[in-house]
Records
---
Amino acid sequence: MIKVFLWGMMGSGKSTVAKKLANRLGYSAVDTDQLIEAKTGKRINEIFEEKGEEYFRLLEEAVLDQVLDMRENLVVATGGGLPCFKSNASKMLGAGICIYLVASSDQLVSRLWQSTEKRPLLKDSRGKEALFKQLESILEERAPYYEKATLKASAMNLDLVSLTGQVRSFQNDLGL
Ligand code: S3P
């Protein structure tokens, strides 16, 4: 069973890329935020508001463990913070191929500035300037984790054909 994990900041397109890449590889796509919402019957926003971030990170860890137990070839879109808490990054690195979808804060601002209210970690950052600063500070903290990924790809100019080829050759090299 092969698992491909997509890592990266909010707005880097993990969910969309997961579906497209899964389609090309003939795998199924899952999304950890969606699994959490299905499991709790609550939106991510509500979970943060009612129970706080620490509780959300526990749910993320539990959902990751569930995904790791799935006997299926999968492309997994992970929540932006997931590789940066607990031992989540090493669990994923030990179980499959991790791809960091790289985007700069500037690039992310243009994708996110109209939807900050929907995102618990960005909801207080109104306006492009404030959003840029908040993204820079999150990215600075997270980059050391994201950089551990097996492969990196540009989030903004993603070449899906080349990425699919890279995943396949990795798979072959690992004898999977
Ligand atoms: C988060 C990213 C979100 C979601 C939650 C926290 C983060 O997922 O898990 O709001 O800490 O970066 P996306 O990266 O899919 O937006």
---
Amino acid sequence: MKTAIYPGTFDPFTNGHDDILRRALRVFDKVIILVAVSPAKRSLFTQAQRVEMITDHLSSEPRSSVDSWNGLIVDYAKKHQINAIVRGLRPTGDFEMEFQMASMNNHLYEEIDTFFLPTGGKHYFVSSSLVKELHKNGRDIAEFIPDAVLKYLKNALGDGVL
Ligand code: COA
């Protein structure tokens, strides 16, 4: 059974993340969405809320599960004996940082490798921050995030304010 971790802050989880997950599930038997901490970011949703909304969205996908972690991804991987990380790459400057993180992770835990998937053409310009910004400015964001996630965003921010 080949299991991969798909880590991210997912604040919130978007259709771009969903696209990466679905494609990873074609290669791996199981993918764990790991809601992690990015030190540079102040999140709108708590980790528990992000776990809840992604779990809600993926309730009909038995080969994926959702977990959260406050430490290094490699420590989670070691603890659960997982040796694959999945990350999406957008043509908007992701590569250098991703290469550095993948290299550091591999340096810290040589059993682990990172598998990059190019972000699908419909999603390369999407990001969680942009989605939140559009919503705050009253734009319809239904095309960018799953329905279950939209419900949480509307609860947190209302219908969007101009
Ligand atoms: N489609 C659309 N948007 C995407 C995307 C995709 N396929 N992939 C990423 N994004 C967006 C995200 O929405 C996010 O947008 P935002 O910056 O506006 O919030 C941005 O791209 C980057 O997000 P993500 O891929 O989730 O990365 P991240 O920077 O939020 O997460 C961690 C980075 C959590 C994976 C990293 O900090 C980490 O591993 N932390 C744990 C500690 C650790 O192990 N550190 C590594 C030491 S080497």
